[in-house]
């Protein structure tokens, strides 16, 4: 016979549908942190082992690669020169703060359970619902697609402007900006076709190329840093020709003079009969070194901004004579600003260079420990890139002349890239590296965007996207790729990185704003499933991140911001109102009624997801003759469990006829409402008048609530005086209610010793011990977590005990249980208690014998119950005196009704091992604590012996039933273990064994006795029985 058949026989009827913990927990050894594909998905591939990447390979490096992009190489120097070192530093800092705050919020969401691949779309749609998820998913998709367009245009710009200017189709683009953009459009479209074909044919090539692109990025940045310090005194690679304060474009630096035969003289004095350009005549020409080096002190010239309007000359200072063109038609070869620049516009242009922080969360399915890797990898990547960007601002400002920094396309230096000429050993390291890294980033965007669109389409929340949910025979999202290429082509036709960058900034800012909003709302709503393993977040940080996102959107471009927000709003409303009815009400009340009706009808659609399960309480209250609740602490306990959230219904049953008891029912209702208000329980009150109390409670269990707002958890008080009751009704009402709650598939909480529970103003410190014997949906795990949200229990620590038998591997059980708790994001000490196989002790045998003797006497003397109680008690006392065994002396006071009468005190005695022991009683006059606290008192001094000599045992006239003996053995053994480990715990939570299916009086009385034995010696006990539904999940 196994240990479970002896030590846990009391739970034997539960084992079919409520598995023992050792069976359940062993399945965690092969736990996988990815959601398996749906079985009916025709495109689902068989689940493989998959790569299990660490923080460095899986999160940090992909984030680095995605964050560092084309803007770093071709625009950062221009941003620094135009905004100045101070405002440039502030621009970079603002952008980095947005991504850091978003990363903190994202880390909280990503560690709140297992997040499969899907990035921000999956996280937000599962946190804020399909409406927000769909809106953000489409924004993220659009942003990613436009990012691909920006990378392609950036790659073409690097080749045409800095590597091979001779490839221009539309002539000399240095003289005509429009010719340059036309080149970008043509070559960009051709490059898009090539890259789209690569993505269509082989995703494996894209993934391999990503490694090369990452290496190029890292080597390029190292080359720039080394070059800056190698050229600390400057170099002679770049020289500029300056007329007065204006920057000029010359074919060769040797042409920088005012000789009559020189090209400058020919340009500014084209006709000998006409005067030369006045500015040319009054100012001298001189040559300036472009790379001056950190030792030159050039940073002082680059501290302040040099913002210009479109068409103004790039010149030293802001003197109108220097920057304003005198004649719009005669710009000669002076370098001009191609766009109007302001602080906010530059933020919009620079912001795409800090995006890419979602790369780690997108790969969560491939990570060995996503909950650890995503926060560390993402935040470290942002810190690294932010350090590079911020230091680059200072280093560029301290190395390069201001005029050269502001020359966006390097026109004044013969079309060279400024960053490349600072690098070591030569410029080609940067040119080739930046080109390959930009191509790699573009390929990654073209690979990721179609998969994101397909994921949104497969969710079915936007019906018109359903055609894009289809995969090709190779499992590739071909249709989604074609749509992505079309949208990307539209972005390429803009032809200008400076127009694309602010546009995609809007979509990323909206996306990041929603991530922050999701984290803030989850934190403030305190949903039971919100248990992030990442603890360094706060709702205020999320709101600051959200505010920064919105502020930067409107500062950059209010019309682009409105466009992005309008697009998100339309998608949101489309998803929300697809098929939803509209109802015109009468003003605000009509609107409120319509919203309430709409919400109730939506809740009615189906049972809540495990993530959204929270205890909706039905408190079954026992009233005194004065129509006040007998146990006020039930309300305090409910308040602590709910922490102001969810549904609470307090209900009571009054015996009688409704037509005669209506006034009594209203008085009871007011009394209950008053008690709820005093205990700060937010909820509803219900009073039912019924001729039969049991039937009335059954009706409440069946009918309480409305639609989806129905209670799912019942709090039922323990019948403290069941042993001394004049009739059997007390425990029968309790047991039948337990059966009714079980039949309704509702959870049941039975607090025992309720008057010892703390009220809501107290704060307790210690342990909450969970004795997890059978698995019934995880309710035992969820309840202490919810209690700890309240300030009363906040300082308590959780300890989880589970029982192992001799045949179990307790070391593996403990390891698996820790794994399970880790994925549940619940912090608790774990202990596996081994119950040794032992013979049934004489003490267990005698307890069972006493129980059955009492039942026999009750049967014989049922006609006179009052008399039978005394007779039975005397027989039990006589029986105790004849047994010389080590058992307990115990004084139990019946739970008082509040008036402290002597009749309320009932003494139970059991024999002791002392030879001349006296029964311990207390005089009522000295029992002041009972009067003041109205609480149950237990003085339990017991030691038990596992064997007793056969000679001293008197032969029993009744042979105990074997099943009862084994159930009593379970109760005694478990009680020994629980009291030994948890006697000092502030609260003990354990599984409530199922009630007997047999409704015979003896079986019901025995069941109550088993529960008494199981909880002996424990001050505060919460017995829990799940409703047959999983209430806790590892998933986000």
Word description of this protein:
This protein is α/β, with parallel strands linked by helices and 1036 residues long. Helix 30 packs across helix 33. The longest helix has 35 residues, at 76-110.
Q: What's the SSE blueprint?
A:
Elements: H1 3-7, H2 21-26, H3 55-67, H4 70-74, H5 76-110, H6 119-128, H7 130-163, H8 177-201, H9 203-230, E1 239-243, E2 246-248, H10 263-268, H11 278-282, E3 285-289, H12 320-323, H13 343-350, H14 359-362, H15 370-399, H16 402-406, H17 418-422, H18 427-459, H19 478-494, H20 497-525, H21 539-556, H22 558-576, H23 587-603, E4 617-620, H24 633-642, E5 648-655, H25 658-678, E6 684-690, H26 693-703, E7 713-716, H27 729-743, E8 747-752, E9 767-772, H28 779-787, E10 797-804, H29 810-824, E11 829-834, H30 842-860, H31 865-881, E12 889-892, H32 928-933, E13 938-941, H33 962-982, E14 987-991, H34 1001-1014, E15 1021-1025
Parallel strand pairs: 4-5, 4-7, 5-6, 7-8, 9-10, 9-14, 10-11, 14-15
Antiparallel strand pairs: 1-2, 1-3, 8-15, 12-13
In terms of per-residue confidence, which ranges show pLDDT below 50 for 5 or more consecutive residues? 28-50, 579-591, 878-956
User: How does the major sheet shape up?
Assistant: 10 strands, mixed
- How big a fraction of the residues is strand? 5-15%
Structural class: alpha/beta
Distance between the termini: 42 Å
CATH class of the largest domain: Mainly Alpha
**Count of all domains:** 5
CATH topology group of the largest domain: Amino acid/polyamine transporter I
- How many β-strands, per DSSP? 15
